[in-house]
Specification:
Layout (H helix, E strand, L loop, with lengths): L2 H12 L13 E7 L3 H4 L3 H11 L4 E7 L26 E5 L6 H10 L15 E5 L1 H5 L10 E3 L7 H10 L4 H9 L4 E2 L13 E2 L5 E2 L25 E2 L25 E5 L1 E2 L9 H5 L4 E2 L2 H11 L5 E5 L9 H10 L3 E4 L9 H9 L4 E7 L3 H6 L6 H13 L4 E8 L6 H17 L3 E8 L16 H15 L5 E4 L2 H11 L4 H8 L5 H10 L5 H4 L13 E2 L4 H12 L22 H6 L1
Parallel strand pairs: 1-2, 1-3, 3-4, 4-5, 9-19, 10-13, 13-14, 15-16, 16-17, 17-18
Antiparallel strand pairs: 5-6, 7-8, 11-12
Helix pairs in contact: 13-14, 14-15, 15-16, 17-18
């Protein structure tokens, strides 16, 4: 281990407030791993919440681990914990939190650098147990199923207790621990599920073979038209909290060395009932739930002891039912406000004014599509009038910058839709004379959404449309930012793939597009087979997960999208309807 690595960890710790240090004696040692840099990981409220919950137990010591960036390839550089600078092999449990598919590459890289066999079946009781959770892997755990011993599906707050209890009760007996985990609601233990059909043996980069069990796609190769119910699999039910108040979610460790270093973050609501058909969060975190206003104000009072600025976090902050009152009372407490995201059709002048008074630099909106027809296709039903009203408020309250987020490549998108996007941006610029920035993000179909069956628009088409928008706005002074269509295709493969992708990840030597394509080819795979349109009766790899949203509901939304009709939405905290199937009897009784 390099001294520079230890010194960097200690430098980061010196600049933190709220770090938890615990004695290791007699405790289960948990490495909470965010497979990206410290700067990115410490912006995650999910990571901070898990850190607090693990350490709230007297029988657990939990320390954070981050990917060291390009330094991981330097000789002598190890993957170590932040708090005590220990290697991963000193821990009994490695818990990865995965927000984005592109971090899958870092998982394999970190395990290899730590000297830990990356495949679950290559590890015995002498190795740490390895689990994962987070939105990306909850939606489709299959690409990483051969790597992890278990995967937490859904929201993890109520899983931590029984998970740790099982570890303590079966200490040192790997198979017994996995069997106990398989009995926990929301825990997926890949090795315990055996479909009727087995895939062929795959070889890792070191030449060793590993069996791939229970791939939902491979399990049905012999009977491709069979219904999902006929498979020898029992889907794992996604776990979600009925009462958010029981688990306050806010900043735990404060540091200036992150994107939100000047903020104290508070989650005000979870989930979204708007029903945007492209949005994983809108389906994987149903039903929408809000936190009580007084509880949020109490958390803000604590936050103001440490930071002047309070960051409000939810899928759509402006959808919070008491957002005007919350913003007004926070301002009355002297708080400066920042928000994670806004919807034009629920945005109020009161909230805009509060943000302006807080010296917010940017007002950010996400039209997602330029014309109302395409917004109906994706079921993001914001009218142009509402969008332009928000632009007018941004101008009136003299925000230095306005940001507009768009997706390119939606199902059914045409050249006319791209023209509508350009026209909307030009009108926004006419109304907002200061700095206007637009972001063009390629659409990636996600599991458990109505677009899970849609084909991904080819990278060449996406690139051409990005280039066209840039050309049209080149002389207007609008800043145009665009994500790589080629890398978006990689994300698309990982988001809708099956267990065969574990072999691809193992064969990756460097994270480059050329390396990715070589690894796919070496495994006899192509990106197109994962990016193509799926038939509604076709078995899907992610059907090992029961998100709670019924397949019939998703198919109805998929059909409505093809007719350019908006779909169904559920407003916050009303639970109990029968539309999508998420709300169970306990929720219905409360409604």
């Amino acid at each position: 281990m390099k001294w520079e690595q230890i010194a960097e960890a200690r430098r980061l710790l010196q600049r933190e407030r709220g770090t938890i240090f615990k004695d290791w004696g007699g405790k289960l040692a948990v490495a909470l791993i965010y497979p990206n840099t410290y700067f990115v990981g410490m912006s995650s409220l999910g990571l901070q919440t898990l850190y607090r919950l693990f350490n709230s137990r007297a029988d657990v010591v939990c320390e954070r681990v981050f990917h060291p960036g390009s330094a991981i390839r330097e000789p002598g550089w190890e993957v170590i914990s932040l708090e005590s600078q220990r290697p991963l092999t000193d821990f009994g449990l490695l818990a990865f939190t995965l927000s984005y598919e592109m971090d899958y590459f870092h998982v394999v890289e970190m395990l290899r650098r730590a000297g830990i066999p990356p495949l679950s079946e290559q590890r015995d009781s002498s190795w740490p147990l390895i689990i994962a959770g987070g939105p990306a892997i909850s939606a489709n755990p299959e690409p990483l199923a051969p790597i992890f011993d278990a995967i937490a599906i859904g929201e993890g707050e109520e899983i931590i207790g029984p998970l740790v209890d099982a570890c303590q009760e079966t200490l040192g007996r790997r198979e017994a621990t996995l069997a106990a985990w398989a009995e926990i609601r929301g825990m997926y233990v890949p090795q315990s599920s055996k479909p009727k059909a087995q895939s062929p043996k795959l070889k890792g980069i070191d030449g060793s073979e590993f069996g791939v069990r229970n791939s939902a796609l491979n399990a049905e190769l012999e009977t491709p038209n069979s219904k999902p119910e006929t498979r020898n699999l029992k889907p794992v039910k996604r776990r979600w909290l009925r009462d958010l108040s029981a688990y306050p979610t806010h900043s735990v460790v404060l540091t200036p060395d992150t994107e939100f270093g000047d903020l104290y973050l508070i989650e005000i609501a979870r989930g979204c009932g708007r029903g945007c058909r492209f949005c994983l969060a809108g389906y994987l975190y149903r039903p929408p739930r809000e936190r009580p206003l007084e509880l949020l104000l109490e958390q803000a009072r604590e936050g103001l002891r440490h930071r002047r600025r309070i960051g409000l976090v939810s899928a759509a902050v402006s959808d919070y039912s008491r957002i005007d009152e919350l913003a007004t009372r926070l301002r009355g407490m002297g708080a400066h406000l920042s928000v994670s995201s806004l919807r034009a059709d629920s945005l109020t002048e009161t909230l805009v004014r509060a943000l302006a008074e807080s010296s917010a630099h940017t007002l950010t909106l996400a039209p997602e599509a330029g014309g109302e027809r395409l917004r109906r296709v994706i079921s993001k039903t914001q009218s142009e009038q509402a969008l332009l009203q928000a632009v007018d408020w941004a101008a009136a309250y003299r925000f230095p910058q306005l940001k507009l987020y768009f997706m390119l490549g939606h199902p059914g998108e045409t050249d006319e839709d791209i023209e509508a996007l350009v026209d909307l941006v030009r009108e926004a610029q006419r109304r907002f004379p200061r700095h206007l920035t637009i972001n063009l993000t390629p659409f990636v179909p996600k599991a458990h959404t109505p677009f899970q069956w849609a084909a991904m628009t080819p990278a060449a088409t996406l690139q051409a449309r990005q280039d066209y928008v840039k050309q049209q706005l080149r002389r207007s002074g609008v800043t145009v930012k665009a994500d790589s269509p080629a890398w978006a295709e990689v994300q698309g493969v990982l988001s809708r793939g099956d267990r065969r992708l574990a072999e691809v990840l193992l064969k990756m030597e460097r994270l480059t597009l050329a390396g990715w394509r070589r690894a796919l080819g070496a495994c006899g795979l192509t990106g197109e087979e994962f990016l193509r349109q799926r038939h509604p009766d076709e078995p899907l790899p992610w059907q090992v997960v029961d998100s709670g949203v019924s397949e019939s509901f998703l198919q109805r939304e998929w059909r409505l999208s093809q007719q350019a009709e908006a779909g169904y939405a559920c407003p916050p905290d009303t639970g109990g309807c029968h539309a999508c199937g998420v709300c169970d009897e306990s929720v219905k009784r409360k409604a």
